[in-house]
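debug: dumping io for the single-chain case to check the tokenizer round-trip. Nothing else runs in this session.
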Amino acid sequence: MKHRWLTVAALQGRDLARRRMVLLVLVGLPLAWYASSAAAGLDYAVGSGTLGVGWCVGATALFTVLGGRSVDPRLVQAGYRPWELLAGRLLMLLGTALVLAAFFAAVMVAGSRPDRPGAVALSIVLIAVVSIGVGLLVAALLPRELEGTLLLIAFVGLQIGIPTAVAQWMPYYGPLRMTDTSLPPANLALLTAHAIACTVVLVLAAGALWYRRVRLTPAAPRRAEMPGRP
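debug: decoded output
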């Protein structure tokens, strides 16, 4: 069957669409983070909402991969290639991330009226894309829901307090720097390149680790039995 990765993307999308509570959390959690910060008059309300979008997209990627860990080897045994499974999930996650990013960019730009609305919208799109790689890598490193969720929470929560010298090496540095109004306007092209490079590295690392778990080990050939022997 051609374009089986599209079939995987469609099936994953249908599964996500049926989970109404998950969709409610995906929309409600970042909205709550942003609304509570904005209501308190914090200057970092947009940054807080941006981190909320990052966490939700990362969690979606985490549970998407972990949810298929028992099915993937059987799909490979049935003829699916590992890259088709990963490409299908990436396509579904990218579509979900862009839809969420567009919605929250509109909400935050309208709600906070930032001086640089284009930078805010770009930051939300970038953190959503980067978070796909973050969630995939966490799922590849910790193939259990509880441990993976705790690591993702810790990683996102530490972003605000990380010193700049360390933050520059983190995948969320570019998107969060774009939302920081306490600093002069940054070079958006360099920050975008930083975020894209981090995404590529994260996805490749996660894909390599994930492939080792789902690849098939060729069965050992049977020795020809001698006639008359049991």
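debug: round-trip ok. Residues 62 and 135 are 5 Å apart (CA to CA).
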